[in-house]
Specification:
This protein has helices at about 15-20, 130-140, 155-170, 175-190; strands at about 25, 30-40, 45-50, 55-65, 65-70, 70-75, 80-85, 90-95, 100-110, 150. It is α+β, with helices and mostly antiparallel strands and about 200 residues long.
Amino acid sequence: MMNNFPYETMQGRQDALERLDLRIYWGNYEIRVIRFHLTSFPPGKIVSFHKHAEFEFHFIPRGKGTVILVDEPYALQEGMFYLTGPEVLHYQEADPEESMDELCLHVDIRDLSQVPDAGQSPRPYADPWEAAEAHDCIEKLRTLPLKPVMDTYRAMPFFLEAFNASQQKYLGLYTTIKNCIIQILLRAVRAYEPEPREAELPS
């Protein structure tokens, strides 16, 4: 029911998180947030084929529709998400009779270890465990299958947590939003794992 939609508070405030011009650092990566919001597609709405130079996460908290990834069509339903990486051509369409909401996280990810003339390490103070986990996650993002899956590990609630932090401006605002973005990335990757596996701490 409409009144039970937990993300209703995000409606009409698309720029709440984007106005912060977020650049977060995770391991040896800089993650620049381009879009971070809830948007709604009315019934039959079409977003024609397009692509981005960055990563874009598309989560469907309500409604249904269709996505075409390159040349393969997939049905979308509540609770699903998909990732479009750099230069991936995609097309979106809401169901002809039902609107479709989308939580969008669009980020540019830059590997600072590849920055020229940065010395031995661009971030010598980076925690080695965190740097290893960040590298593992980002490398997996680059090779995820081009198909929607269910949000098995519940990344979606972190959109709302980040939004609430931006509105309430409580202590730890930036750290909370940073952690939410990292959790979205990690949980998205985990959803594509064929089966749960034990994490190994970096040596």
